[in-house]
C-alpha cells in the first residue's frame, strides 16, 4: 500500500493557522481569563508572522496557551475537544489521497499532544511528528518546547533508507521543499484524484467534550468574549425564571428571552388502554433540561429519571427527579412505583450525545409498561454546550442560559401499539427488540444514526482508556 507523509495544517485540515486550536486549549483547559489573554496577544502574534518570524509567534502562542497547565488537562483537551474541530475542517481532497496508503505519517508544527488522538484514532495515522512540550517535575507545562530535532531529520530517521512514497504539504510552517525531497512523489506530482480507488471515510467523531461550539478564530473569539458579560447578566434573569416560574410560563418566557421551541406531533393523543400504569415518555438525551422542556409543553409536572445530574441541578429542578442506583432490580422497582403514581420521563441512553448519533438504549424501560411514547429531541445552541463530561457540572445551567438564542425541536411520536411492546397478553416482543425499535424510530425522525455505544463507552473513550473507536454505526 505504500507510505505517505502529510502536513496537518493547511493540508489534512483546511486552516493553515493553528491559532484557534490554541484558543480552545486556553479556554477548555484553563478558562475565560487565559482565553482573553491569548486573544489580546493575537495582533502581536500576527505581526510576527507578517515579519517572517512565524516560529517566534508560534512559540509565544504555545507559551501563553499552556504555561502552568498540568499535562493531564492539555492531554484531555487534545483527546476530547480538538478532534471535533479538526474533523469539521478536514480537507476531503487530501483525505482521498492520504487514505489510499498503508503507512501514514502526519507532521505538525503544533505540540504532538494536541493532534495525536485525532490523526491516530480518526485518520489511521501510525506516527505523529510534532513539537514536544517541556514539563517540570510536577507534570506542569512550562510553556517552552523541548529540542527534539527538526521535522525533516525526524521524518528521515523514521523512514531510514526507504523513502516515503508520497509527501503532501504546503509552504506553511516549515520548508516544504525539504519535506518533499524525502519522497518519491510530492503533492504536485501525485496521480489525479480520479486515479485513486474509492476512499474510505474517516472514523466519525461521536463523542467530544468542552463548552465552546464555535471555532474560535480571532473575530469569533472576540465576539464570544464580548458576549460573556452580557450572557452573565441574562443568566441572572433567566435562571430564576426556570426555577421559580410556573411551568406554563417557562415556554413563553423562554421565547421572549430568545429561546425557540418547535413542537411536532400531538403530545396528548393517546390510544385507549386498560393499564393502570402511567405513560412512559422515552426520549433521546441532548441536554439536562430535556425533561423540563417536555413538561412545559405538556403543562404538567412529570417526574424524570436522572443518571449523573449534578446535585445543584437536582436541588433546583422545577420538576420531580429521582436518581437511579444502577442496581437493575432496585431501579426497576423504583420506576414501577413511580409509574403507578402517574407519567414518567426517561432517557434510556443514560447520557447526552451532541452529534447526530443515538447511543444504545437500555432495555430496562421496555419491561416496565406497555404505554410508551417515543419523543425525539434536537437542540441547537449557538455559543456554549450546556453539558460537559468533566469539570464543573454545577455550571451547566449557567452555560445553558448564557446562550443568546437556542432552538429546541420536540417531536412526539405515536404511542407504541401493544403488539410492539413486551405485553405478554399479546405474545409481545423482547425488551431488547422494543429498545432497538424505539431507538430506530427516534433516529429516523431526527435523521440521526444508531450506534452500539453506551454511556460507559462514552466516558471510557473521552478518558482515553480505549484504543479503538471503530465499528460504531449500526
From TrEMBL:
GO cellular component, one term: membrane
Gene Ontology process terms (BP): cutin biosynthetic process
MF-aspect GO terms: glycerol-3-phosphate 2-O-acyltransferase activity; phosphatase activity
Subcellular location field: Membrane
Alphabetical list of SMART domains matching this protein: PlsC
Keywords of the record: Acyltransferase, Membrane, Transferase, Transmembrane, Transmembrane helix
InterPro entries the record matches: HAD_RAM2/GPAT1-8 (IPR056462), Plipid/glycerol_acylTrfase (IPR002123)
Similarity-based family: Belongs to the GPAT/DAPAT family.
Protein name: Glycerol-3-phosphate acyltransferase 7-like
The species this protein was found in: Spinacia oleracea
Lineage: Eukaryota, Viridiplantae, Streptophyta, Embryophyta, Tracheophyta
Amino acid at each position: 500500500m505504500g507510505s505517505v507523509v502529510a502536513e496537518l495544517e493547511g493540508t489534512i485540515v483546511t486552516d493553515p493557522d493553528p491559532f484557534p486550536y490554541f484558543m480552545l486549549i486556553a479556554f477548555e483547559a484553563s478558562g475565560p481569563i487565559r482565553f482573553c489573554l491569548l486573544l489580546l496577544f493575537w495582533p502581536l502574534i500576527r505581526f510576527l508572522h507578517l515579519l517572517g518570524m512565524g516560529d517566534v509567534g508560534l512559540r509565544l502562542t504555545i507559551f501563553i496557551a499552556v504555561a502552568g497547565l498540568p499535562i493531564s488537562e492539555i492531554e484531555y483537551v487534545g483527546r476530547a475537544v480538538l478532534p471535533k474541530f479538526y474533523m469539521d475542517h478536514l480537507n476531503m481532497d487530501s483525505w482521498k489521497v492520504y487514505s489510499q496508503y498503508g503507512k501514514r505519517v502526519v507532521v505538525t508544527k503544533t505540540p504532538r499532544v494536541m493532534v495525536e488522538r485525532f490523526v491516530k484514532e480518526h485518520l489511521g495515522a501510525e506516527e505523529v511528528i510534532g513539537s514536544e512540550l517541556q514539563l517540570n517535575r510536577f507534570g506542569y507545562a512550562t510553556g517552552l518546547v523541548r529540542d527534539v530535532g527538526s521535522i525533516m531529520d525526524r521524518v528521515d530517521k523514521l523512514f531510514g533508507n526507504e523513502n516515503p512514497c508520497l509527501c503532501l504539504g504546503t509552504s506553511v510552517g516549515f520548508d516544504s521543499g525539504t519535506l518533499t525531497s524525502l519522497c518519491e512523489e510530492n503533492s504536485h506530482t501525485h496521480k489525479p484524484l480520479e486515479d485513486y480507488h474509492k476512499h474510505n471515510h474517516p472514523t466519525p467523531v461521536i463523542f467530544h467534550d468542552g463548552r465552546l461550539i464555535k471555532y474560535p478564530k480571532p473575530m469569533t473569539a472576540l465576539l464570544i468574549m464580548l458576549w460573556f458579560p452580557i450572557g452573565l447578566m441574562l443568566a441572572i434573569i433567566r435562571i430564576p425564571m426556570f426555577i421559580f416560574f410556573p411551568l406554563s410560563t417557562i415556554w413563553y418566557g423562554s421565547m421572549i428571552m430568545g429561546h425557540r421551541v418547535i413542537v411536532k406531533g400531538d403530545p396528548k393523543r393517546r390510544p385507549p388502554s386498560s393499564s393502570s400504569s402511567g405513560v412512559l415518555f422515552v426520549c433521546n438525551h441532548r441536554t439536562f433540561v430535556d425533561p423540563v422542556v417536555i413538561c412545559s409543553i405538556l403543562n404538567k409536572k412529570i417526574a424524570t429519571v436522572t443518571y449523573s445530574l449534578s446535585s445543584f441541578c437536582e436541588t433546583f429542578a422545577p420538576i420531580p427527579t429521582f436518581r437511579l442506583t444502577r442496581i437493575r432490580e432496585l431501579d426497576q422497582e423504583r420506576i414501577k412505583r413511580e409509574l403507578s403514581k402517574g407519567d414518567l420521563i426517561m432517557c434510556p441512553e443514560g447520557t447526552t450525545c451532541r452529534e447526530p448519533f443515538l447511543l444504545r438504549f437500555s432495555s430496562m424501560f421496555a419491561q416496565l409498561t406497555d404505554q410508551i411514547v417515543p419523543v425525539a429531541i434536537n437542540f441547537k445552541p449557538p455559543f456554549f454546550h450546556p453539558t460537559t463530561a468533566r469539570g464543573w457540572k454545577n455550571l451547566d445551567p449557567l452555560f445553558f442560559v448564557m446562550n443568546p438564542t437556542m432552538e429546541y425541536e420536540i417531536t412526539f411520536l405515536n404511542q407504541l401499539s401493544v403488539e410492539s411492546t413486551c405485553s405478554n397478553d399479546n405474545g409481545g416482543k423482547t425488551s431488547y427488540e422494543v429498545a432497538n425499535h424505539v431507538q430506530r424510530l427516534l433516529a429516523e425522525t431526527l435523521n440521526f444514526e444508531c450506534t452500539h455505544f453506551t454511556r460507559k463507552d462514552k466516558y471510557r473513550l473521552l478518558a482515553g482508556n480505549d484504543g479503538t473507536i471503530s465499528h460504531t454505526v449500526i
